[in-house]
Amino acid sequence: MSKLKWTSALAGGVLAALAAGPAAQACEVTVGLVLELTGPAGQYGQAGAKSVEMAFRDLNEAGGVLDGCKLVTDTRDSQSQGNVAVDQATQLVNIKKVPVVIGGIISSVSIPILTSVTAPAGVVQVSPASSSPTLTQLARDGKTGGYFFRTITSDALQGTAAAKYAIDQGLKKLAIVHVNNDFGVNMVREFSSAFEKLGGTITSTTPYNEKQASYSAEASAAMAGEPEALYLVSYPVDGATIARAWISQGGPQTFLLNDGMNSTDFIESVGAKFLDNAFGTSSGTTPTKSTEYFYGAYKDFSGGIEPSAPAADRSYDAGAIVGLAIAKAGSAEADAIKAAIPQVVAADGEPIFAGKDEFARALELIKAGKPIKYEGVIGPVGFDEYGDITGPFRLWRISSGEVTTVGQMSAEDVMSLKDELAGK
């Protein structure tokens, strides 16, 4: 299944192009993107799409892949809906014949793409931000075929990190309102178990369905039991509506928030003055030279999107890893790319960072048959047998309308706490 789409530069025929030399041998490798450009998670997808484009630009300016081929994107909008995402991914895989799909951002989009499209077709899928433990379980059950990877840690650990952070901030009596999908249900299950074992009390748990005009009923239900704060597991658009309903009904202006809620849209929609006691956790970063490069260059490239936007950093890494893997594979075939992805973050490889110059060095090492280790914007990564990564968790709070990092929990500390709470 060829994934090379020759451009009009080769319209005169392959032989003519070869005779004209390398400059005429332009070609493109198309990678499919199914991202949440609109809908409740639209802010994530817009930032993510720009990040992948930036990674591909850097790789292309470094010389491209497969002897000078340019990486290009075919970007589709999932509208934050699983059924729409499946339709778009099906078109990319069956009609456009892409070897890789990057996306979705949220788990309720990534899971149906994986189970209905990419895994059955044997096409690689890399999600920058889908954190549901269900994705790990699908891999354990042999339902991904090894074609799925993600550049975010699982909520199986983040729920525990959030519980510890809440207790440390004195938040011991919480109401929970959560999106009623795979991400929300799993996050709350992991959080609730850890939070109660750490001595916290959950006064109520209220699921909600997305894209409602009003969440007054859910906010009212969450008031039961006189909670001291609200743990809101949501996305920026719906989350802002829920937070406003909570505040207008007299709920305590103290919040615990999930990753992705540290967005400017959420803060502006709710009002900064109501969020000075808002705390949250995110899949964190271990700063590298890639982090420094990305934070210095992304805003200009993206047209004003902040580099701290949800999913921006790890989407760049998803694009970089896919692009380097295509170069390492030596072909745009899905099976070869799948095998190459762990190899471009090889523990014994030469460290490589983000940006044109570093990618040029990576491409030279690949041509020389030497191992490389891409150390990303989110830090050094490595994939386990299920396509998962492990990494630290960022602890943050909102102050005067700004999201400020106040600490970090290592993956090892979280795993140790999780084992301790489980009695291991």
UniProtKB/TrEMBL annotation:
<keyword id="KW-0732">Signal</keyword>
<protein>
    <submittedName>
        <fullName>ABC transporter substrate-binding protein</fullName>
    </submittedName>
</protein>
<dbReference type="Pfam" id="PF13458">
    <property type="entry name" value="Peripla_BP_6"/>
</dbReference>
<keyword id="KW-0029">Amino-acid transport</keyword>
<dbReference type="InterPro" id="IPR028082">
    <property type="entry name" value="Peripla_BP_I"/>
</dbReference>
<feature type="signal peptide">
    <location>
        <begin position="1"/>
        <end position="26"/>
    </location>
</feature>
<feature type="domain" description="Leucine-binding protein">
    <location>
        <begin position="28"/>
        <end position="348"/>
    </location>
</feature>
<dbReference type="InterPro" id="IPR028081">
    <property type="entry name" value="Leu-bd"/>
</dbReference>
<dbReference type="GO" id="GO:0006865">
    <property type="term" value="P:amino acid transport"/>
</dbReference>
<dbReference type="InterPro" id="IPR051010">
    <property type="entry name" value="BCAA_transport"/>
</dbReference>
<comment type="similarity">
    <text>Belongs to the leucine-binding protein family.</text>
</comment>
<keyword id="KW-0813">Transport</keyword>
